[in-house]
Amino acid sequence: MRNLSSSLRDFVLVWFGQVISLLGSAMTWFALMVWAYERTGQATPMALLGAFSFGATVLFSPFAGALVDRWNRKRVLLLSDATAGLATLVVLGLYLVGYLQIWHLYVIGVLAGTFQAFQYPAYAAAVSMMVPKEHYTRASGMLELAWAASSVAAPLLAGMLLGRIGIAGIMTLDLFTLLFAIAFLLPVSVPQPERSEAGSESHGSIWQDSRFGFQYIWA
User: Fold this and answer.
1) Where on the phi/psi map is residue 98: left (φ > 0), alpha (ψ -120 to 50), or beta?
2) Residue 47: CB partners within 8 Å, gap ≥ 6?
3) Cβ neighbours for 39, distance < 8 A, ≥ 6 positions apart
4) For residues 32 and 108, what is the distance between their CA atoms, to the nearest angstrom?
5) Which of 155, 180, 161, 141 is nearest to 16 (CA)?
6) With the CA atoms of 168, 172, 177 and 178 taken in that order, what torsion angle do they form, in degrees rounded to the nearest 10?
7) Secondary structure string (H, E, C) spanning the chain
8) Rounded to whole angstroms, how far apart are CA atoms 105 and 113?
9) CA distance 127 to 143
10) How would you class 219 by CB atoms within 10 Å of its CB: exposed for 0-12, middle for 13-18, buried for 19 or more?
11) CA distance linking residue 123 with residue 130, whole number of Å
């Protein structure tokens, strides 16, 4: 078994990269909500932005875990970061040329929520493969801290930076944070788990895997 420093090193690299990426993405989302409010003068578009993103996450979460179990966790994380970067790049381009509309943000919100449904289980599942069992508690705490930090710190940072670098500057910063996260993830090896007896028993269609997962948890 690897020693403590080597066993936690890869996890800390991935964790740190994702913390920075989550902060950047949350800052962009906050800035866009401010833009939507300034453009319409109403709170409804802000609420709809959150509803589209959260709704997509809730809708796809029951099946995301089953799919992540079939796929390579590292590739899922890379694809999630790359897709988030592409979405930010599209919004930035539309904003710079003056074509950005509210409905564009609704579409981006659905995409962001969908990939978040896959990103979190892939990230959480990778923890159990990268960290020794005796450090699960520490790793889980760091994992939750990353998501909590993006929720609390991002609005504060975005509010401070909006007046200085504007919405375009925040989105550009977000792109750099995504590249930062990908750069930290690329050299890291994320082991794939061996299929357990329960996992072999449940192997079937996505619907069967999802149903078995709920039954296993209930039991």
Assistant:
1) left
2) none
3) 45, 102
4) 11
5) 180
6) 110
7) CCCHHHHHHHHHHHHHHHHHHHHHHHHHHHHHHHHHHHHHCCCHHHHHHHHHHHHHHHHHHHHHHHHHHHCCHHHHHHHHHHHHHHHHHHHHHHHHCCCCCHHHHHHHHHHHHHHHHHHHHHHHHHHHHHCCHHHHHHHHHHHHHHHHHHHHHHHHHHHHHHHHHHHHHHHHHHHHHHHHHHHHHCCCCCCCCCCCHHHHHHCCCHHHHHHHHHHHHHC
8) 12
9) 9
10) exposed
11) 11
Q: Which amino acid is at 70?
A: R
Both tokens of 80, joined, read 């999630």
Distance CA 7, CA 2 (A): 6
Return the amino acid letter for 55: G
Q: What is the residue-level pLDDT of the chain in tens, covering all 219 positions?
A: 444 455 677 888 888 888 888 888 889 988 988 898 888 888 888 788 878 888 888 787 777 777 777 777 788 888 888 888 898 999 999 999 999 999 998 988 888 888 877 777 777 777 777 777 777 788 778 877 877 877 888 888 998 999 899 999 999 999 999 998 889 888 887 776 665 555 555 555 555 665 665 566 677
Dihedral angle computed from the Cα positions of residues 86, 19, 110 and 126, in that order, rounded to the nearest 10 degrees: 100
